[in-house]
Dienelactone hydrolase domain-containing protein (Puccinia striiformis), 353 residues
Amino acid sequence: MTCGELCISSKNSHPPLCFYASNRGLIPCLIDLTCLPWPTGFIHEGKATGVLSTIKDIQVYIATPTEPIPEKAILIFPDIYGVELKNTQLIADRLAVDVRVPTYVLDLFGGSCAPQPGTRTDFVFADWLKGHGPEKVLPIIESVIQHLTEKGIHKFAAVGYCFGGKYVFMTSQKNWIHVGSTCHPSLLQIPDDLNKLNDTSKVPLLINSCEFDEQFGAEAQKKADEILGDGKYKPGFKRNYYAGATHGFGCRADLVSASFPDACHCNRASLTPALEQQKEKTSRKGGIRQEFCRDREMVQNSPLIRSIHTRDCDSSHPKANIPTCLKHPAALCSDRASSLVTYKNTEELDAVE
């Protein structure tokens, strides 16, 4: 094996046991195979309209709406490609405009995110990961929250993709945020993180999961339902499942492939009712009516979630069983739309005690 080469001992374990060849020999690691530094996703088209700035020496991408709803913010915890991945910036831009809440993408990596997909072949994920554990990442998040609180922000929603999904769990466990959502979370300790959430958190949680995911696969999804579902998790829990979709669908899906001409239609079909639902329920304050945050089953009962449910892109689709890299229509459907579930909740944070 050459330096940087990946050897997979078993694809059937959860997660698979892998070895990286480094100058120190083979390094065993439990990793997310789809977050590796070669092309495993797609760069989205469009021009980001927010700005890169710093908060207490932490780089952040800030998307600010024209007339922001006061005292609220959305925090995006990105995947390993960090704050400069255009896909994540575009998501932040869209949310800021549609939901009218300032949106912040945080650099969780102290300026040393993984190289952009396909730009390096000598990157060793296991070595990189050692420098980006909770002891480094949590102080970054805490510092940004403290700064924004000092500036008058009192309600936070957090959304995490892949690596960042773990920190939706951890900030929920610490009750630093008020609403949490994650797409294809990685690096979770199952069942420990689920049990701790149940024991300590007051934060409603949405998990967007998929069929092909080495990090949060069928076993982990089942365990989440067992521990958090059926009303066991009192703040509110919902898990969406996208049959045929692949890890990375939340921020790296292929939105333009000619091989899937129905993908954009599917995306619009799920996104449009979500946006209409928000517009129809505006309050006199200019925000969304506080219609379900008081309910412990907030997430389960949300009509917004139902409008985004996989019935619009279900497993009966003729391409549903094609595990092509991030191209399944369900992945495209959920790329932006599934994330909006939390963002609607964000505007209802006045109801969170």
Notes: Residues 42-351 form a domain with the Rossmann fold fold (CATH 3.40.50.1820). The first helix runs from residue 86 to 99.
